[in-house]
Design goal:
The protein is an alpha+beta fold and 165 residues long. It contains four helices and nine strands. The chain has a single domain, classed as Hypothetical Protein Pfu-838710-001.
Length: 165
């Protein structure tokens, strides 16, 4: 699968909430997430616990490209002992814990993240469904509607931000 992403550093979600209402973005849920990153030379590899469910995610993204297209694969895991299992076979690198308010606008996920030890951020992820051009148009609409050009873009993962502390 593929999506187009951006991460924005925020000091407050207040202005974003009103803009989300104006474009009729649908509030989906509040997610408690724990991302366990494992050392991997071919991209980013993490086990994510969302509330009490697990998924294993691999993704690769060129942080230096003008547009942050990300290729990713997700494997759903039903076993509640997933964390212990993967810790036995992979070298743990870092853990990222966050509370995510999830909104949806068509094929765009809007994440309002409060990340432990880092602060508040917004992430847009527009999934490619009908080609990159269509995804880019939707992404640009949401980006412009939320006035994200007024904020600082970060071209790195939460993993990298925490490793830099």
């Amino acid at each position: 699968m593929q999506n187009l992403e951006i991460k924005i550093d925020l000091t407050s979600f207040d202005e974003i909430f009103s803009a989300l209402k104006q474009i009729n973005a649908e509030f989906i849920d509040i997610l408690e997430q724990k991302d366990i990153y494992y050392r991997n030379s071919k991209g980013l590899l993490k086990l994510r616990r969302v509330n009490e469910e697990y998924e294993f995610i691999f993704y690769d993204r060129d942080e230096s490209a003008e547009n942050r297209w990300s290729n990713f694969s997700i494997l759903k895991i039903a076993d509640p002992d997933a964390e212990e299992f993967f810790d036995k076979i992979f070298e743990k690198e870092i853990i990222v814990e966050k509370t995510r308010k999830l909104y949806l606008y068509k094929n765009t996920r809007i994440h309002l993240d409060s990340v432990n030890n880092l602060g508040d951020f917004l992430e847009l992820e527009t999934v490619v469904v009908d080609g990159q051009e269509s995804a880019k148009e939707e992404f640009d609409f949401v980006y412009d509607s939320l006035s994200l050009s007024n904020y600082k873009e970060l071209r790195t993962s939460y993993r990298d931000l925490l490793l830099a502390l």
